[in-house]
Design a protein that fits this description.
TPR_rpt, NLR-like, Serine Threonine Protein Phosphatase 5, Tetratricopeptide repeat, mainly alpha, 195 residues, single chain, Kinesin light chain, TPR-like_helical_dom_sf, TPR repeat
Length: 195
């Protein structure tokens, strides 16, 4: 991989092919965190180079989905269905489904992860647990993409409050979410004027 990166650069399609194959190797070895890292890198590069509908991009999506499903089965067998490591993978599978445009499947994964986090760490602690906050964030933007603006804004406002309490008002993630909420409000106001 280093040779390809040096010769052609990190975003060249030949390099991305090697990155994807490295993800396959890590997945076969059970090194799922490293496999995920390689798949995400390959997927982002292939989407940029060829677009989201290219067969090479779709192959990487399929391989990533297989890896996540394998990880879920292994985590569930080893630790049970509500272990936080498993729930993190459920969230990531939701992200993958969201990227594929499978909105119902993505929503189901996010909801499963959130319910699991509530059971695992308690409903009172979920507001301070970053992985659960991240899942709520993902669900909020999924709802927005699905056109469920009121639900999305309500959830994202709560995410904002939780994130601000956890990280402080000047943290970049808090500021980014604040800007996104303002953009959503402005868009909704424009749409109401058109109607």
């Amino acid at each position: 991989m280093r040779g390809y990166e040096k010769a052609w650069g990190p975003e060249h399609t030949s390099t991305l092919h090697i990155v994807n194959n490295l993800g396959n190797l890590y997945s076969d070895q059970g090194k799922l965190a490293k496999a995920e890292e390689m798949y995400i890198r390959a997927l982002q590069g292939k989407e940029k180079a060829w677009g989201p509908e290219h067969t090479s991009t779709l192959d990487t999506l399929a391989e990533a989905e297989v890896m996540y499903m394998r990880a879920l089965r292994g985590y569930e067998k080893a630790w049970g269905p509500e272990h936080t490591s498993m729930l993190h993978t459920v969230n990531n599978l939701g992200n993958l489904y969201s990227d594929q445009g499978k909105l119902a499947e993505a929503e189901a994964m996010y909801m499963q992860a959130l319910q699991g986090y509530k059971k695992a760490i308690g409903p009172q602690n979920i507001v301070r647990y970053r992985p659960a906050i991240n899942t709520s964030y993902n669900l909020g933007f999924l709802l927005s993409a699905w056109g469920k603006q009121n639900e999305a804004k309500s959830l994202l406002k709560q995410v904002y409050v939780n994130l601000e309490a956890l990280l402080g008002p000047s943290h970049k993630d808090v500021q980014s979410l604040q800007n996104a909420l303002q953009d959503m409000n402005q868009l909704q106001q424009r749409l109401e004027k058109i109607r």
